[in-house]
Amino acid sequence: MRVNSKEYWNERFGSDWKEFEGNGQTQYFATILGEMLPERLIGEINKNGYSICDLGCAEGDSLPVYKQLFINSEISGEDFSERAIEIASRQYPEFLYRVSDIMQPESERKYPVVICSNVVEHFSDTYKVLCKICERSTKYSIVMIPYRENQGG
Asked: Is residue 95 part of a domain?
C-alpha cells in the first residue's frame, strides 16, 4: 500500500489514528491556527457569515474548534478518505461532510473560506496542490503547513 494513498488513509483512520493521537493533533493545530489569524479577518468572516470548508478534515475534530471561532459561519469538511468522513459524521453530526479529493474534486463547489491544515506536506507537488486549494475559495484560502515534518539530519 502506497503511503498517503486513499487506501493508506482509510486504513490509518480505521486502525491507529487515535492511538497516535491524530484527533488531539487535529484539534491542537486548529486552535493554533485560530490564535494566529488576524482579528480583522476573524471579524470579517463573522460579520459576513462566510461559509467555511476544511479541506482534508480527517475525522472532523477541527470543525467544533472552527465553529467556536467563526460563530456565524456554516462549517463543513471534506476528505478523500471515506472512513474518515464516516467517523466524522458520527462524531460531529451537526456539520456537513463530503468525500472529495483535493486534486480531483468531483464538483467545482467553492466556498468563501477554505482552510487546509497539515495536508499540503503529504503531496509531492506543493505548488499544484496549493493552486487546487486556492481554486476552491472565493475569498480566502488559509493553509497551515508544518515547518519541518522530519527532524532528522
From this structure: yes
